[in-house]
């Protein structure tokens, strides 16, 4: 037994160590990078010497590297270091002319990469509805994309149960892909390239590409890990968006089908993959790809997804990135969930401090060496051609832009390519300024040189400053990651818009989800910009597009499938649509990033998804295969056209709808044409509690009268169905050529708000 003296000694030693630990803390020190004396070969040596000179510890001169207070030496976008110091040492450093700032290391709670939290997918998700997250272990999400990087931590299967017995898929081998790379998370990986190879003459246009499921593009790894990636702690993109990266349905399985290659995604390959995926046993199909609009019988995705829907597979597709152009939405088949994009409450601010004292606000994901503190000259539209304002390849004159910051107009070529063009011409920085086409939307990029993106109004101020000032200058400053941005969500300007040109009577897009600056897994075969000259490698990347919003909804559909295995794809779709919200985090109506105006259902559909409410929607609008056939018959397609979609020997159109809008869709799109009155009937199914009563609330449009009969629906049992009829009357004297108006119809009780947006148009677009 220890003596009392020994115990007292140990107590004093413990208190001394505790005091010492409390007296010292981590500080971050920003340094004048150029002040390094020539006597030091590296900044690391210089920083070590500085710390030894101000140390209050007499043993500091003999400290080993592991004992040094120097923690990190920063040589990229931040010039300086971090160190473990006491207050006196920190104050001593600050008195040095080479030290610009000293501040305590801020403490953050590393939670998520934001989208799960933003969508309410926390540990309490589904508790009120009795949903267990483990239920999603039986759900398999198939992703048609550019393949998969199986070594990514997003496919870690630690703790996952055995693969469901229903799964019939496989993991294919290839020149660069071992079938053993699949596991209980990544349950399948296939590639489909015959259509591509035929189109390209049988060869591959890049050395990285081969016939295998391996992702050498990054897009497929990003989308599949967004849908159902495992939780990965301490994830970030070069320090940005730090947290725990996780998919929407972390317990679900992933099966990837590589259908996209260097020259595109071919319809023949897509159809083959969808066929295989259905046979393999997927529950959800996610397709972050599209190619404009076409009649359904010419739309390979529409055709393939019809078969999937018939087999009980939910299909989610991206709406396209052609916004804010009107009528640009793609993947509009009513049996497909069409997903637009919105912003998160997270941003990556960066600034341009101009020589006239003004500070322009923008965004950036630049992570390389900073610009220092000296402003540089600004140039705009100085080059070898009329396209120099766009910074197209070979458009800049190196003698004019070398050593300067170049302003580039957004548009035509890729945003990251503009930065590469500026760098190759000798420019030291870039400000990419939006034009009217992109409005005020800001998308952050990981450029190869210091660069920020600014909106149209800011861009106009910048162009005028360069034009009017004899010596325009700027200094670019990067500020990392900020959260709780207001307002959010905002509809992304690039998100494709309605109305639906294939079937104007079906409102598209259906919903919006997170699609701007999304962090997810990435391929190790390519840099984050996707440019060949980008030698950087990262486990995660931040991307924007409806390609990113689509897998969010695919993952959420997987959660609903697990919670309600008896629900059809149309019931799941209805739940996501009728519970979507239309107010941002300032409790104001959703806005449009294109011009900061109020958004409308042609941009956001039913609204932004709310998975918590979708678990218990109260009522759903269900649609059978036969009803979809009646819908197709109402389009005046030939029997052969319809047979091509439904894949039956023949179809009977004797019971076709009088109007395509009669389909039991969760939203309304009313095309008056030459009529003044349009009447639709809908049927809702009670998936809530028995003995439920709902009353209707109508939000009309200025030029349309709306009446609903009956105005009250009473349900005695779960699964009971009730019908109601809506009459829309265009008011006399209304002449609204090419104009749209909007309203809503909501069935309400104290527990549920089952909302359907209504879009009105008077002419076919």
From TrEMBL:
CDD domains in alphabetical order: PA_subtilisin_like, Peptidases_S8_3
Record's protein name: Subtilisin-like protease
GO CC entries: extracellular region
Keyword entries, A-Z: Glycoprotein, Hydrolase, Protease, Secreted, Serine protease, Signal, Zymogen
Domain Peptidase S8/S53 as annotated: residue spans: 137-591
Pfam families xref list: fn3_6, Inhibitor_I9, PA, Peptidase_S8
Originating organism: Brassica campestris (Field mustard)
Region of interest (Disordered), residue spans: 198-227, 592-611
